[in-house]
Amino acid sequence: MFQTSALLLLLASLGASASPVDLSARETTKEFVSPPGLNLTYSSPFNSALPNVVIMATGGTIAGAANSATSSGVYSAGSIGVEALIDAVPDLLNISNIYGYQIANVGSPSINSTIQLQIAQAANAILCAPDSTTEGVVVTHGTDTLEETAFFLDLTVNCGKPVVVVGAMRPATAYSADGPANLLQAVTAAASPLSKDRGALITMNDRVGSAWYTQKTHVNYLDTFKAPEPGYIGGFFNNRLFYYNTPATPVFKKTFDVSNITALPRVDIIYGHQEFDARLMEAALELGDVKGLVLASPNGGVGAEAIIARVAEQVPVVRHVRINVGMIAPSAEAPTANNVTISSGLVNNQKSRIQLQLALATGADPRETFEEPLRSILYA
Ligand code: SIN
Questions:
Q1: Annotated catalytic, 217?
Q2: pLDDT average per 10 residues of sequence, the chain (380 residues)
Q3: Which of 261, 259, 249, 255 shows the shortest CA–CA distance to 213?
Q4: Which candidate, 2, 70, 72, 61, places its Cα nearest to that of 182?
Q5: 20 to 30 A from 56, CA-CA: which of 69, 110, 137, 308?
Q6: Catalytic one among 143, 156, 173, 188?
Q7: Which helix (H) or strand (E) is 4 found in, with range?
Q8: Beta-sheet pairing, 342-343 with 317-320
Q9: From its phi and psi, is residue 40 left (phi > 0), alpha (psi between -120 and 50) or beta?
Q10: 252-255: which pairs have CB atoms within 8 A and are 24 or more residues apart?
Q11: What is the DSSP string of 170-215?
Q12: Hey, which family's this protein in (predicted)?
């Protein structure tokens, strides 16, 4: 309630109102059937004229709190529960019936594949069942790894209904906290038929991006989420959602069915640099449980290629570059003795890790998953 009470006091002193929601006309809370393993922690009074949106909260700065309103960079992420997040934005209830789940309340570096699988399976159950009455799912998340979970959901929840991932760059207690507006826009997008068939979305700072392309590009500033080459797909004007084009799917996108997957294999990212010692990759394999590697790299150092080739005989090695933007094109024919690693295509390092995990977990061929869509276009 941090933001709400301060905002309401301010508006009252100005003789204005904060779009009060008249709940008297609503039916009592409608029972919502929780997917297995989830506990409903928030449910708004039900209005059959409004769409149903489920919010799954995982923590991050959007749920962060600091000791002072001037503290926008030093705070505890994941301090505020889903109920307080929703209470801070009364207008959510003017546009939707809200059901809230507290999936986790952690900084996003602590989000793991167990949590991602839980969200994906719950979202599929909530949105994609034949008798589903839910229009969209919103996931609140820390921004540091938000693009990874958003990409994961883009590849694993695919029945056309919107999944919107949202965070904030300033904690809930800060002056000009961006969380409440971001949450309102995320719910607006999740509830809108305009968002259908666009894959998972990231809405932040008045913009809408495809989760397949969007990534965090700045550590501190509000306009951090960008899709460097293709750009945003939509935005908000006066909180009205618009899209630039009719729905489209990223050309190289692969999807995965995780309904029966209980765990994902471990894939690590190794970071290349001048004087890079490729024996780090062998050291990673010695950990024992590594089933694949992503190499964020210039083209190795002296002697590196021989080591990389040895490692690639044991586990799939996907190669991108450190810049994280651009295409690592596959060779025309795969694989040759000089081409033992897998080209990541347009998928950046952290997203390549997710895609390789999903390919390995579902029995998909990693090279085909990454290279085939591109090869068929580049060398047709
Ligand atoms: C986090 O990723 O959990 C902290 C940073 C943020 O949410 O902006």
A1: no
A2: 42 47 82 83 94 98 92 87 96 96 97 98 96 96 98 98 98 95 98 98 98 97 96 97 97 96 98 91 96 86 84 95 89 72 95 98 96 87
A3: 249
A4: 61
A5: 69
A6: 143
A7: helix 2-13
A8: parallel
A9: beta
A10: 252/345, 252/346, 252/347, 252/373, 252/374, 253/154, 253/155, 253/199, 253/212, 254/155, 254/355, 254/359, 254/364, 254/369, 254/373, 255/155, 255/156, 255/158
A11: S-TTSTT-SHHHHHHHHHHHHH-GGGTTS-SEEEETTEEEETTT-E
A12: Belongs to the asparaginase 1 family.
Nearest to 233 by CA among 222, 249, 221, 218: 249
- Closest CA relative to residue 146, chosen from 350, 360, 359, 358: 350
Provide the whole-model pTM: 0.94
Question: Residues, the chain, total?
Answer: 380
CA 228 – CA 226 distance, rounded (Å): 6
Confirm or reject: Cβ of 143 under 6 Å from ligand 1.
yes
Specify the ligand 1 atom closest to the Cα of 59: 3
Q: Quick: pLDDT tens for 69-102.
A: 998 888 898 889 999 999 999 999 999 999 999 9
* Residue pair 304/327 in contact by the 8 Å Cβ criterion: no
Residue 61 bears catalytic tag: yes
Radius of gyration, CA atoms only, the chain: 22
Which residue carries 């409608």 as its tokens? 30
Please answer whether residues 97 and 47 qualify as being in contact, where contact means their C-beta atoms are separated by less than 8 angstroms: yes
Dist. CA 136 → ligand 1 center (Å): 23
Q: What tokens were used for 35?
A: 């997917």
Work out which ligand 1 atom sits closest to the CA atom of 108.
3
Task: State both tokens at 25.
Answer: 């006309």
